[in-house]
Automatic annotation (TrEMBL):
This is VWFA domain-containing protein. One of its GO terms (molecular function) is ATP binding. GO terms for cellular component: nucleus; preribosome, large subunit precursor. GO terms for biological process: ribosomal large subunit assembly; ribosomal large subunit export from nucleus.
Amino acid sequence: MGESGSGSLAFETLVMVSKSLSMLEVGEICVVGFGENVNVAHDFDTPFSSDAGPKVFQHFGFEQKRTDVTKLVRESIELFRNARAKASGSPADLWQMELIISDGVCDSSEHEPIRRLLREALEERIMMVFVIVDDVRNKKKGESVMDLKEAKFVKNEETGRSDVRIERYLDTFPFQYYLIVSDVKELPGVLATLLRQWFAEVVDSSN
């Protein structure tokens, strides 16, 4: 996030998402920061009040050298499991949702492990949505995530040699559910659409 220059928009997005979810009374809210490690900035047991925001932001910065999305997903599943176990009388069909706010860039070697974890999460009624912060104006290279491409070596079955194939980064993005936000003003409408889709998913799974 620090390298991409999207930190400011990420903070704005986090504020709006947290306030929106709190106003909608969606249930308990947990906020974590992630990079090389995952740090809980606000746990499920603490109500998300107007005073919570400044305390949460004290835990965030962009000094970590890499972003381990696989670790984030793995540890998030554990956080949700623990929260479900603590909640007395939780219905068996309770759904939980995570919104991941980041620039969307993770190493392609992580994609398959992330997909496996996401399948595991869905089996436990945990839906993970990636909110990709795409602040092109402030990015150092001025390149949108929608334009990113990757070169991959693919074995040619006829010749036995490896050929280079260029793919759009988002075509292999491991998250089935993702949104791209380039302006925080777009967020209310985007969130409304997301929550409608989520509720529809929950209803379909319950039938």
